[in-house]
Design brief:
heterodimer, A: alpha/beta, five-stranded mixed beta sheet, 14% strand, B: six-stranded mixed beta sheet
Protein backbone atom coordinates (compact mmCIF):
# COMPACT_ATOMS: atom_id res chain seq x y z
CA UNK A 1 0.00 0.00 0.00
CA UNK A 2 2.62 2.49 1.03
CA UNK A 3 4.89 1.73 -1.97
CA UNK A 4 4.56 4.49 -4.48
CA UNK A 5 5.98 4.21 -7.94
CA UNK A 6 9.30 6.05 -8.31
CA UNK A 7 8.89 9.49 -9.82
CA UNK A 8 9.77 9.73 -13.49
CA UNK A 9 13.22 11.12 -14.23
CA UNK A 10 13.07 14.36 -16.12
CA UNK A 11 14.59 13.76 -19.53
CA UNK A 12 14.30 17.33 -20.65
CA UNK A 13 18.02 18.01 -20.47
CA UNK A 14 18.87 14.95 -22.52
CA UNK A 15 18.41 16.98 -25.68
CA UNK A 16 20.88 19.57 -24.44
CA UNK A 17 23.49 16.94 -23.74
CA UNK A 18 23.01 15.39 -27.17
CA UNK A 19 23.24 18.79 -28.82
CA UNK A 20 26.47 19.46 -27.02
CA UNK A 21 27.94 16.22 -28.33
CA UNK A 22 26.64 16.95 -31.80
CA UNK A 23 28.24 20.38 -31.87
CA UNK A 24 31.51 18.92 -30.62
CA UNK A 25 31.57 16.46 -33.51
CA UNK A 26 30.58 19.11 -36.01
CA UNK A 27 33.52 21.25 -34.99
CA UNK A 28 36.21 18.61 -34.73
CA UNK A 29 35.49 16.62 -37.86
CA UNK A 30 35.62 17.26 -41.55
CA UNK A 31 33.83 15.54 -44.34
CA UNK A 32 36.82 14.29 -46.28
CA UNK A 33 37.06 15.44 -49.84
CA UNK A 34 39.50 12.99 -51.26
CA UNK A 35 38.84 13.25 -54.90
CA UNK A 36 41.34 14.28 -57.43
CA UNK A 37 43.26 13.67 -60.59
CA UNK A 38 45.38 10.57 -60.20
CA UNK A 39 48.64 10.42 -62.07
CA UNK A 40 51.68 8.22 -62.31
CA UNK A 41 54.96 10.08 -62.33
CA UNK A 42 57.61 8.95 -64.77
CA UNK A 43 60.64 7.25 -63.22
CA UNK A 44 63.96 9.06 -63.28
CA UNK A 45 66.22 7.88 -66.05
CA UNK A 46 69.76 7.54 -64.84
CA UNK A 47 71.33 7.54 -68.26
CA UNK A 48 70.72 10.23 -70.79
CA UNK A 49 67.44 9.50 -72.48
CA UNK A 50 68.11 8.46 -76.02
CA UNK A 51 66.34 10.53 -78.57
CA UNK A 52 63.11 8.79 -79.26
CA UNK A 53 61.97 9.86 -82.63
CA UNK A 54 58.39 10.91 -82.51
CA UNK A 55 56.87 12.23 -85.66
CA UNK A 56 55.73 15.77 -85.33
CA UNK A 57 52.21 14.86 -86.38
CA UNK A 58 51.95 12.64 -83.32
CA UNK A 59 52.75 15.41 -80.84
CA UNK A 60 50.11 17.75 -79.50
CA UNK A 61 51.87 20.67 -77.93
CA UNK A 62 50.17 22.44 -75.04
CA UNK A 63 52.01 25.33 -73.43
CA UNK A 64 50.97 27.39 -70.45
CA UNK A 65 53.13 30.46 -70.75
CA UNK A 66 54.55 32.36 -67.79
CA UNK A 67 51.87 35.01 -67.94
CA UNK A 68 49.13 32.44 -67.93
CA UNK A 69 48.25 32.15 -71.60
CA UNK A 70 47.36 28.87 -73.16
CA UNK A 71 49.12 28.01 -76.40
CA UNK A 72 48.11 24.93 -78.32
CA UNK A 73 50.28 23.98 -81.30
CA UNK A 74 51.75 27.51 -81.13
CA UNK A 75 48.37 29.16 -81.36
CA UNK A 76 46.52 30.83 -78.48
CA UNK A 77 43.41 28.98 -77.38
CA UNK A 78 40.63 29.37 -74.86
CA UNK A 79 40.56 26.76 -72.12
CA UNK A 80 37.03 25.69 -72.99
CA UNK A 81 38.14 24.69 -76.49
CA UNK A 82 41.04 22.58 -75.29
CA UNK A 83 39.04 19.45 -74.54
CA UNK A 84 37.63 19.20 -78.02
CA UNK A 85 40.98 19.97 -79.66
CA UNK A 86 42.70 17.28 -77.62
CA UNK A 87 39.91 14.83 -78.36
CA UNK A 88 40.14 15.44 -82.10
CA UNK A 89 43.90 14.97 -81.96
CA UNK A 90 43.86 11.69 -80.03
CA UNK A 91 40.97 10.21 -81.94
CA UNK A 92 42.21 11.35 -85.35
CA UNK A 93 43.27 7.86 -86.48
CA UNK A 94 45.09 9.04 -89.59
CA UNK A 95 47.44 6.05 -89.69
CA UNK A 96 47.40 3.45 -92.43
CA UNK A 97 48.41 -0.20 -92.55
CA UNK A 98 49.72 -1.43 -89.20
CA UNK A 99 49.26 2.04 -87.69
CA UNK A 100 45.56 2.18 -88.52
CA UNK A 101 43.05 2.64 -85.73
CA UNK A 102 39.86 0.67 -86.39
CA UNK A 103 37.90 2.08 -83.46
CA UNK A 104 38.77 5.75 -83.99
CA UNK A 105 36.10 8.07 -85.32
CA UNK A 106 38.23 11.10 -86.05
CA UNK A 107 38.73 13.10 -89.20
CA UNK A 108 41.80 11.07 -90.34
CA UNK A 109 43.65 14.29 -90.98
CA UNK A 110 47.10 13.42 -92.40
CA UNK A 111 48.64 16.22 -90.34
CA UNK A 112 47.27 14.95 -87.02
CA UNK A 113 48.00 11.79 -85.02
CA UNK A 114 48.21 8.30 -86.49
CA UNK A 115 46.61 6.40 -83.64
CA UNK A 116 46.00 6.89 -79.90
CA UNK A 117 48.99 4.70 -78.99
CA UNK A 118 51.38 6.94 -80.86
CA UNK A 119 49.71 10.21 -79.96
CA UNK A 120 51.59 12.13 -77.30
CA UNK A 121 50.38 15.24 -75.55
CA UNK A 122 53.26 17.40 -74.47
CA UNK A 123 52.39 19.76 -71.62
CA UNK A 124 54.83 22.53 -70.98
CA UNK A 125 54.59 25.04 -68.18
CA UNK A 126 56.66 27.85 -66.72
CA UNK A 127 57.89 28.06 -63.13
CA UNK A 128 55.52 30.95 -62.48
CA UNK A 129 52.48 29.10 -63.77
CA UNK A 130 49.74 28.91 -61.15
CA UNK A 131 48.94 25.43 -59.91
CA UNK A 132 45.23 26.10 -60.46
CA UNK A 133 45.83 26.76 -64.16
CA UNK A 134 47.90 23.60 -64.45
CA UNK A 135 45.13 21.53 -62.89
CA UNK A 136 42.53 23.17 -65.12
CA UNK A 137 44.49 22.13 -68.19
CA UNK A 138 45.11 18.63 -66.82
CA UNK A 139 41.41 18.36 -66.13
CA UNK A 140 40.48 19.24 -69.69
CA UNK A 141 42.95 16.69 -71.06
CA UNK A 142 41.60 14.03 -68.71
CA UNK A 143 38.13 15.01 -69.88
CA UNK A 144 39.06 14.23 -73.47
CA UNK A 145 40.48 10.84 -72.50
CA UNK A 146 37.52 9.97 -70.31
CA UNK A 147 35.12 10.82 -73.11
CA UNK A 148 36.96 8.59 -75.56
CA UNK A 149 37.33 5.77 -73.06
CA UNK A 150 33.65 5.96 -72.22
CA UNK A 151 32.81 5.62 -75.88
CA UNK A 152 35.06 2.67 -76.62
CA UNK A 153 34.04 0.96 -73.39
CA UNK A 154 30.39 1.40 -74.27
CA UNK A 155 30.87 -0.32 -77.60
CA UNK A 156 33.15 -3.07 -76.21
CA UNK A 157 31.45 -3.97 -72.96
CA UNK A 158 28.18 -2.06 -73.05
CA UNK A 159 29.05 0.07 -70.02
CA UNK A 160 30.84 3.42 -69.85
CA UNK A 161 34.38 3.50 -68.48
CA UNK A 162 33.42 5.55 -65.44
CA UNK A 163 30.84 2.89 -64.56
CA UNK A 164 33.54 0.19 -64.79
CA UNK A 165 35.59 2.03 -62.21
CA UNK A 166 32.63 2.34 -59.88
CA UNK A 167 31.88 -1.36 -60.28
CA UNK A 168 35.47 -2.13 -59.41
CA UNK A 169 35.01 -0.53 -56.00
CA UNK A 170 31.75 -2.34 -55.41
CA UNK A 171 32.91 -5.75 -56.64
CA UNK A 172 31.85 -8.47 -54.25
CA UNK A 173 34.77 -10.85 -54.61
CA UNK A 174 38.24 -11.11 -56.08
CA UNK A 175 37.19 -12.98 -59.20
CA UNK A 176 34.75 -10.29 -60.14
CA UNK A 177 37.32 -7.65 -59.33
CA UNK A 178 39.94 -9.24 -61.56
CA UNK A 179 37.47 -9.42 -64.38
CA UNK A 180 36.69 -5.73 -64.16
CA UNK A 181 40.35 -4.86 -63.73
CA UNK A 182 41.10 -6.67 -66.97
CA UNK A 183 38.40 -4.73 -68.76
CA UNK A 184 39.79 -1.47 -67.41
CA UNK A 185 43.27 -2.38 -68.63
CA UNK A 186 41.85 -3.20 -72.06
CA UNK A 187 40.18 0.19 -72.30
CA UNK A 188 43.31 1.95 -71.11
CA UNK A 189 45.24 0.22 -73.90
CA UNK A 190 42.80 1.59 -76.44
CA UNK A 191 43.45 5.14 -75.30
CA UNK A 192 46.65 5.26 -73.25
CA UNK A 193 47.26 8.38 -71.24
CA UNK A 194 50.32 9.72 -73.01
CA UNK A 195 50.79 13.05 -71.34
CA UNK A 196 54.37 14.20 -71.17
CA UNK A 197 55.07 17.01 -68.76
CA UNK A 198 58.05 19.16 -69.57
CA UNK A 199 59.76 20.55 -66.54
CA UNK A 200 60.24 24.29 -66.43
CA UNK A 201 64.05 24.01 -66.12
CA UNK A 202 64.18 22.54 -69.57
CA UNK A 203 62.07 25.28 -71.02
CA UNK A 204 63.93 28.50 -70.30
CA UNK B 1 -24.86 23.66 -19.86
CA UNK B 2 -22.16 24.82 -17.53
CA UNK B 3 -20.72 21.34 -17.54
CA UNK B 4 -19.95 21.46 -21.23
CA UNK B 5 -18.50 24.95 -21.42
CA UNK B 6 -15.97 24.08 -18.72
CA UNK B 7 -14.37 21.42 -20.86
CA UNK B 8 -14.05 23.63 -23.88
CA UNK B 9 -12.09 26.26 -22.06
CA UNK B 10 -9.12 23.92 -21.38
CA UNK B 11 -5.67 25.04 -22.72
CA UNK B 12 -3.72 23.13 -25.33
CA UNK B 13 -1.50 20.50 -23.75
CA UNK B 14 2.25 21.29 -24.18
CA UNK B 15 3.92 19.55 -27.09
CA UNK B 16 5.93 16.62 -25.89
CA UNK B 17 9.65 17.06 -26.40
CA UNK B 18 10.45 13.55 -25.34
CA UNK B 19 11.48 12.53 -28.86
CA UNK B 20 13.82 15.47 -29.31
CA UNK B 21 16.82 13.60 -27.84
CA UNK B 22 16.18 10.77 -30.26
CA UNK B 23 16.25 13.12 -33.20
CA UNK B 24 19.42 14.79 -32.03
CA UNK B 25 21.10 11.46 -31.38
CA UNK B 26 20.21 10.39 -34.85
CA UNK B 27 21.95 13.49 -36.23
CA UNK B 28 24.88 12.83 -33.96
CA UNK B 29 25.31 9.29 -35.19
CA UNK B 30 25.07 10.45 -38.76
CA UNK B 31 27.92 12.87 -38.27
CA UNK B 32 29.99 10.37 -36.36
CA UNK B 33 29.73 7.90 -39.20
CA UNK B 34 30.03 10.28 -42.12
CA UNK B 35 33.03 12.23 -40.93
CA UNK B 36 36.54 11.56 -39.78
CA UNK B 37 38.57 13.24 -37.09
CA UNK B 38 40.86 15.95 -38.32
CA UNK B 39 44.30 14.49 -37.96
CA UNK B 40 46.62 17.25 -38.91
CA UNK B 41 46.31 20.91 -38.23
CA UNK B 42 46.71 22.48 -41.63
CA UNK B 43 48.83 25.59 -41.45
CA UNK B 44 48.75 26.58 -45.09
CA UNK B 45 46.01 28.09 -47.18
CA UNK B 46 44.00 25.33 -48.83
CA UNK B 47 41.88 26.63 -51.64
CA UNK B 48 42.15 23.52 -53.75
CA UNK B 49 41.71 23.92 -57.50
CA UNK B 50 38.48 22.75 -59.08
CA UNK B 51 38.20 19.78 -61.39
CA UNK B 52 35.46 17.46 -62.55
CA UNK B 53 37.36 14.60 -64.18
CA UNK B 54 38.27 13.10 -60.84
CA UNK B 55 38.82 9.71 -59.30
CA UNK B 56 37.94 8.96 -55.75
CA UNK B 57 40.54 7.73 -53.30
CA UNK B 58 38.85 4.83 -51.62
CA UNK B 59 41.20 3.69 -48.94
CA UNK B 60 42.37 6.47 -46.65
CA UNK B 61 44.97 4.16 -45.14
CA UNK B 62 46.91 4.20 -48.37
CA UNK B 63 47.17 7.94 -48.70
CA UNK B 64 50.13 10.02 -47.57
CA UNK B 65 49.34 13.70 -47.53
CA UNK B 66 51.58 16.54 -48.53
CA UNK B 67 50.18 20.02 -48.05
CA UNK B 68 51.49 23.09 -49.79
CA UNK B 69 50.48 26.68 -50.20
CA UNK B 70 51.08 30.09 -48.68
CA UNK B 71 51.06 29.97 -44.84
CA UNK B 72 47.77 30.93 -43.18
CA UNK B 73 47.55 34.46 -41.69
CA UNK B 74 48.62 33.28 -38.21
CA UNK B 75 51.90 31.99 -39.49
CA UNK B 76 52.71 34.62 -42.05
CA UNK B 77 54.70 36.71 -39.63
CA UNK B 78 57.07 33.83 -39.05
CA UNK B 79 57.08 32.03 -42.36
CA UNK B 80 56.30 34.69 -44.94
CA UNK B 81 53.68 34.59 -47.64
CA UNK B 82 55.33 32.55 -50.37
CA UNK B 83 54.40 28.91 -50.90
CA UNK B 84 55.54 26.46 -48.25
CA UNK B 85 55.31 22.72 -47.78
CA UNK B 86 53.71 21.16 -44.74
CA UNK B 87 54.39 17.58 -43.70
CA UNK B 88 52.52 16.17 -40.74
CA UNK B 89 52.17 19.08 -38.34
CA UNK B 90 55.04 21.31 -39.31
CA UNK B 91 56.48 23.29 -42.14
CA UNK B 92 59.17 21.48 -44.04
CA UNK B 93 61.75 22.02 -46.70
CA UNK B 94 61.69 20.29 -50.05
CA UNK B 95 64.56 18.04 -48.95
CA UNK B 96 62.48 16.69 -46.06
CA UNK B 97 59.98 15.03 -48.39
CA UNK B 98 62.18 12.01 -49.06
CA UNK B 99 62.60 11.11 -45.41
CA UNK B 100 58.91 11.80 -44.79
CA UNK B 101 57.86 9.35 -47.50
CA UNK B 102 60.32 6.74 -46.25
CA UNK B 103 59.04 7.10 -42.69
CA UNK B 104 55.42 6.87 -43.82
CA UNK B 105 56.22 3.77 -45.82
CA UNK B 106 57.94 2.22 -42.85
CA UNK B 107 54.90 2.82 -40.65
CA UNK B 108 52.58 0.92 -42.97
CA UNK B 109 51.93 -2.76 -43.26
CA UNK B 110 54.43 -4.34 -45.73
CA UNK B 111 51.58 -5.83 -47.74
CA UNK B 112 50.18 -2.47 -48.73
CA UNK B 113 53.42 -0.56 -49.22
CA UNK B 114 53.34 -0.95 -52.98
CA UNK B 115 49.85 0.48 -53.13
CA UNK B 116 50.59 3.72 -51.32
CA UNK B 117 49.56 6.90 -53.04
CA UNK B 118 50.60 10.46 -52.30
CA UNK B 119 47.81 12.98 -51.98
CA UNK B 120 48.94 16.45 -52.96
CA UNK B 121 46.79 19.08 -51.33
CA UNK B 122 48.09 22.20 -52.92
CA UNK B 123 46.58 25.66 -52.94
CA UNK B 124 45.60 26.85 -56.40
CA UNK B 125 47.68 30.04 -56.13
CA UNK B 126 50.93 28.13 -55.64
CA UNK B 127 53.57 28.43 -58.33
CA UNK B 128 54.31 25.36 -60.39
CA UNK B 129 57.97 25.62 -59.42
CA UNK B 130 57.11 24.36 -55.92
CA UNK B 131 54.83 21.65 -57.30
CA UNK B 132 57.48 20.36 -59.68
CA UNK B 133 60.04 20.42 -56.84
CA UNK B 134 57.71 18.21 -54.83
CA UNK B 135 57.08 15.77 -57.66
CA UNK B 136 60.83 15.58 -58.36
CA UNK B 137 61.46 14.57 -54.77
CA UNK B 138 58.70 11.99 -54.98
CA UNK B 139 60.26 10.50 -58.07
CA UNK B 140 63.59 10.19 -56.25
CA UNK B 141 61.99 7.96 -53.61
CA UNK B 142 59.98 6.09 -56.21
CA UNK B 143 56.63 7.29 -54.94
CA UNK B 144 55.21 7.48 -58.42
CA UNK B 145 51.52 7.28 -57.67
CA UNK B 146 50.14 10.71 -56.93
CA UNK B 147 46.76 12.32 -56.69
CA UNK B 148 46.25 16.03 -57.15
CA UNK B 149 43.43 16.51 -54.67
CA UNK B 150 40.79 18.87 -56.00
CA UNK B 151 37.39 20.27 -55.24
CA UNK B 152 34.39 19.35 -57.32
CA UNK B 153 33.63 21.96 -59.93
CA UNK B 154 34.12 23.12 -63.47
CA UNK B 155 37.52 24.79 -63.93
CA UNK B 156 36.69 26.38 -67.27
CA UNK B 157 34.18 28.66 -65.57
CA UNK B 158 36.74 30.35 -63.35
CA UNK B 159 40.22 29.90 -64.66
CA UNK B 160 41.87 32.89 -66.23
CA UNK B 161 43.18 30.87 -69.14
Amino acid sequence: MSRRSAPEINAGSMADIAFLLLIFFLVTTTIESDKGITRRLPPIDEQEPEDVVVKERNVFEVVISRNGDLLVEDKPMELKDLREAALNFIDNGGGTGSAACPYCQGAEDPKSSENPQKAVISLEYARQTKYGDFIAVQNELMGAFNQLRDRVSLSEFGVPFSKLQEDMDKAANDIEKDEIAQKITRIREFYPLNIMETKPEQVN
Amino acid sequence: MAKFSKKKGGELPPISTASLPDIVFMLLFFFMVATTMRETNVMVKQDLPKADQVEKLENKNLVMYIYAGPPSPNYQQQFGTSGRIQLNDKFARVEDIQSFILAERESKNPGIRSKLITGLKIDEETNMSLVSDITDELRKVEAYRINYTTRQGDPTAESGL
